[in-house]
Amino acid sequence: MQWFYSHFNYVLAVLLLVIGLYTILSSHNLFKKLLGLSIFQVSISLFYISVGKVSGGTAPILIGDSTQGEVLYSNPLPHVLILTAIVVGVATLSLGLALLVRIHNAYGTIEEDEVSAKDRNQ
Amino acid sequence: MAIYLGLALDIFSWLLLVTGGGFVLIGAIGLLRMPDFYTRLHAASIIDTLGAWLILLGLILQSPNWMTALKLIIVVALLLFASPTTSHVLAKAAHKAGLKPLLGKDAHD
Amino acid sequence: MTSLWLNAVLLIFLFIISISILRTRKLFSAIMLTSLFSLLCAAVFVGLDAVDVAFTEAAVGAGISTVLMLGALALIGSNAEDRSHTSTHRKAFAMCVSLFTGAVLLYGTIDMPRFGDHRAPAHQHVAPRYINTSPQEIGLPNMVTSVLASYRGYDTMGETLVVFTAGIAVFGLLGNVLKRQREKDVLPDVGEHDGEIVLGIFAKLMVAPIILFALYVQFHGDFGPGGGFQAGVIFAAALVLYALVFSVESLMLAVPLRAIRILMAAGITLYAGTGITTMLLGGQFLDYNLLAHNPVHGQHYGVFIVELGVGISVGAVMLSLFYSFMNYRPQQRRPGK
Question: C336's torsion region: left (phi>0), alpha (psi -120 to 50) or beta?
Answer without folding.
Answer: left
